[in-house]
């Protein structure tokens, strides 16, 4: 397409989808900016307090659900997705079933996706500029108040499942999303239709019953929230159900029948680092703060912070089969400088003591 010709927006839309694939995205789609029903759903969710400490979910008013308020002049949103399931990793259910190992959500095993995807979106914008000249745009990857799942659904990339995660018929749900807001009047794609039917496996399997109903997630009970977003003590009644999940949770995705179609990541940077697809809890608990910061450089795990990391692992050690190694690891942190860490270590040690008590014999 010549930069001097009047744009053929249908041809440009086709080119954008091809360029997106060439840049490593699995798929791209285009939507308008109308999200009225999703705005009502968001407001109801916030009113119920399901966002917990995530004040940022309410901070931006209607800009989250009105793209043209966040970025004035926006007419269309180009949504992209990128598969993240690293090939060759230890099987998720195997790790969850190994009480001595720490489970890290599959999306967080390798490099943090935010910069990687934003850079690719900027390259996509550069290709568009090369074809038609300057145009208004802004790239987002989890970096601003954006209803990314609703926009991706409207762009045909998948439907929002009962667990509130986007599902694609050909690729399951293990993928990241990103957006390019633009002022170009591109033709929009047909929204995806829902295909959960009567299935409720994700609701039933949730360890903490955080999915309080179809499409209703109480984040305050969600293990991803508890191990990443929560900046204080994990409620005691939710510690045991967390099991050995030390950063995030995938159970609702692991059980989803549509993930039999999940695609492996093609991006090598998503490969696991430091054997985090099944490393031993005692080893991870032994990391110093310097080691934690060095080993999680450029990874999403950084978000929990070192104290949160120790807090989460202490809970997992309290849920693990008791052993001398686990008790020694916990004792080594019993006088930690952080009151939050000390609290969770004390809870875990009490669990070890209770599990080690011999059963009373017949009187």
From TrEMBL:
Binding residues for tRNA: 231
Binding site for [4Fe-4S] cluster 2: 206, 222, 249, 252
Entry superkingdom: Bacteria
PROSITE patterns: 4FE4S_FER_1, 4FE4S_FER_2
Recorded catalytic activity of this chain's protein: epoxyqueuosine(34) in tRNA + AH2 = queuosine(34) in tRNA + A + H2O
Entry keyword annotation includes Oxidoreductase: yes
Compartments, record wording: Cytoplasm
Single GO MF descriptor: epoxyqueuosine reductase activity
Chief place where the protein resides: cytoplasm
Top-level EC class: oxidoreductase
Keywords annotated in UniProt: 4Fe-4S, Cobalamin, Cobalt, Cytoplasm, Iron, Iron-sulfur, Metal-binding, Oxidoreductase, Queuosine biosynthesis, tRNA processing
E.C. code: 1.17.99.6
Residues annotated as domain 4Fe-4S ferredoxin-type: 184-216
Free-text comment on the cofactor: Binds 2 [4Fe-4S] clusters per monomer.
Pathway(s) per entry: tRNA modification; tRNA-queuosine biosynthesis
Pfam families registered for this protein in UniProt: Fer4_16 (PF13484), QueG_DUF1730 (PF08331)
Keyword presence, Iron: yes
Cofactor dependence: cob(II)alamin; [4Fe-4S] cluster
Binding site for [4Fe-4S] cluster 1: 196, 199, 202, 256
Sites where the protein binds cob(II)alamin: 64, 142, 166, 177, 224, 249-250
Residues of the active site: 142 (proton donor)
Protein family: Belongs to the QueG family.
Subunit structure: Monomer.
Function: Catalyzes the conversion of epoxyqueuosine (oQ) to queuosine (Q), which is a hypermodified base found in the wobble positions of tRNA(Asp), tRNA(Asn), tRNA(His) and tRNA(Tyr).
Name of the protein described by the UniProt record: Epoxyqueuosine reductase
Organism: Dyella jejuensis
Native organism taxonomy: Bacteria, Pseudomonadati, Pseudomonadota, Gammaproteobacteria, Lysobacterales
Gene field: queG
